[in-house]
Amino acid sequence: MKVKYIILCAVVLGLVVGCKNDDSPTPDKTNNSLPDWYYAGGKLGTTTLATSNAFEQPTASVEAGFYESFKRGEALFEKQFMSNPKGTRGGLGPVYVRSSCIHCHPGYGHGKRIEAGTYNSTEIGNGTLLVIYNPTTEAYCTWVAGMPQLHAVAPFKAPIDESQIIIKWNTYTVGVFGNAFPDGEKFELVYPTVEMPTSAIYGYDKLAELGNDMDYAVKLENTIGIFGTGLTDAIPDDSITAQWAKEEEAFNKGYLKHWRKDWFEGGTWKTYYTNSRQGDGTQYVRRYTYAMSRGPILDAAGANAIWNIPNVTRSDRRYHYLDLKGTNYATVASKDAEVQAAFPDYIKQYANATDNPEFFTENVEQNIYNYLTSTNLPVEMTDEEYTDVMVWHRGLAVPAVRNINDSAVWKGKELFTKIGCAQCHRPSWTTGPDNLQDPNKFFKSEKDMPHYAYQKIWPYSDFVQHKLCMVEDIRTGWCRTTPLWGRGLHQKCTGDETAARLHDTRARNVIEAIMWHAVSEESDAYESVKQFYKLSKTERDAIVAFVDAI
After folding, report:
1. Partner of 381 for a Cys bridge, out of 49, 201, 314, 354, CB 3.0 to 4.6 A?
2. How many angstroms separate the CA atoms of 306 and 143, rounded?
3. 8 A C-beta contact, residue 129 and residue 223
4. CA-to-CA distance for 475 and 477, rounded, in angstroms?
């Protein structure tokens, strides 16, 4: 077996459910025992591997009864989907973002940094997605999908022609500090800009005729690492709520410069994640994606992506992901003469006149529109396959902390807390009973998934949104604190030449990532980075060593 597991050799006592800060003294490393923060994913969710496949390992809970399902889900993640509607991984298209999950998550981590030039999504490892939005309202453009499709199965045509998209990297000087530390060590900051002409938009003129607001701009947003997500899903909702309440109090006292009053005020949530289409509209605390647009993992980014990235239907989603309005692409494609000419042969592969007579009338234009807007499409991914994917997703372990005996790592841990980084990158959480939560109402039994009850885990995130006020910042400026665990293995696991940190991979190493937190005095992290800036090189290097180790 390729995994070396941490053996549970003692019963863990005294774990407490709820929101508990990591304020305890640094453990004594002079004895032979390992400190608790070594076990990043807790005793049930940590793997000791630090090799190139460190992010791919199953947890002990998976090994206890889900291993075969985990491996089947792993194959669905790694291998490409096919346009053939029959068989495993069939049903790609009619338009799609990528043909496999691993395209965007090389080595199961976040995507590689992309270089300047023509955007190329066919390259394995390019997890940088396009964000097409209205620059005035900062809302997604409704004439395209939130994750725009760049590919199509003939006779359909891609909504966006990526060959016309140009990425540029621009240098930036930190006005407050300059791009050098007081001791003379220099650093460089760069950020991306995107050029996408109107000719790259399929049916641009027709979309405008349909009454769409065609004012747009484009930004980049990279995928996040998926390992350990099942562990963070086990954090109780009330613990996350308590953390938001604690930080709201910090904002009220002036320690934070920005706060989402539209989301959370007076210690109470004003907005939740709900699913009324497949579920019953039950409210759940937000916790996933940069935008915190998702709730529990069983209806979060991964559950969504296995459907909308390859556009493969399943029993709970018998429709295609095309555009945010829902009818724009269907209207444009249905009026395309080339699509009309080939559609009758295409549809015979995907449906039959008995089950879907609305696709086989004498009006081809209407047939195309009916097919693209249908909510009754044939099922392409079986329930068993979807279950396997989610077992795999919830079953990925977290690498243990590396270089645990390095004194620089311990010094960096101390400084990380001292200068205030741990205020947003909260070190540890304690999971709760980990009862099943699925807003989609697909999974109903606790036995369907691996669980992680009462584990102390170390993701280094507060699961709160903050503003860093960077140039060409993330859409809306609000971004959830990204967990830091395992990130030091990014290059080894993905083959990336850089550390590729922050939402659009603008930071090529830890120093750049830190300094991007303070390019504006309005940043929530400005005061912490100001202290980092004043540290000696030895102290700065210690923090880098710690961040790379965790």
Report:
1. 314
2. 22
3. yes
4. 5
